[in-house]
């Protein structure tokens, strides 16, 4: 299976390395034509305003919108913001693909980065060490969106809607391959 990682800005190299460890054919994506032969796409963390601006100037916004209508797409952190339908402002370009409302920089300055062990539905029982960096959270998610993980205070930090996946943290900054394997399974399902 061939999985692209949007490589405009942010933590894309780490995703590529993890996908390759899982024997996926992982490629960096910067041009619309590169989406054509992909079975799935990861939108990495970074800065969603920058990713939005670059996607606009590279002519990627509409091709990406079309891509994630029916092909598996996973957004991590800034990627989650980019996938959401509602981020509470109209100023930055987003794909508006997932029925979630997201609050950017939810944790503010006090604890803008932290690490925590999370239980994630769909993975084995072992906790997942999650790295949050100026992270968003999902403030509204209704069916058909499935909630996969919450923090102790109830904040939603991982969701799935059919072939779309979004996580508020950075799974590519650990050595735990389980979420990447979970995404590969979604891609695999969609290919059969
Ligand atoms: N705070 C960033 C944003 O609003 C996201 C941070 C991240 O991706 N680590 O886009």
TL;DR of this structure?
With 192 residues, the protein is of the alpha/beta class. It has helices spanning 12-21, 48-57, 61-70, 78-83, 178-191; strands at residues 2-6, 25-29, 40-43, 73-76, 84-86, 98-103, 113-118, 128-133, 137-141, 146-150, 156-161, 164-167.
Q: Helix coverage percent of residues?
A: 25-40%
CATH arch. level architecture:
3-Layer(aba) Sandwich
By CATH's scheme, which homologous superfamily applies? Answer: Class I glutamine amidotransferase (GATase) domain
First-last Cα distance: 11 Å
The string of secondary-structure elements, in order, is EHEEHHEHEEEEEEEEH
Tell me the total number of β-strands: 12
- Which residue ranges are poorly predicted, with pLDDT under 50 across at least 5 consecutive positions? none
Number of domains: 1
Query: What is the multimeric organization of the chains shown?
Result: single chain
Question: Treating each run of at least 4 consecutive H or I residues as one helix, how many helices?
Answer: 5
Report the C-alpha radius of gyration, rounded. Answer: 15 Å
- Report the portion of residues in β strands: 25-35%
Mean pLDDT: 97
| Biggest sheet details | 7 strands, mixed
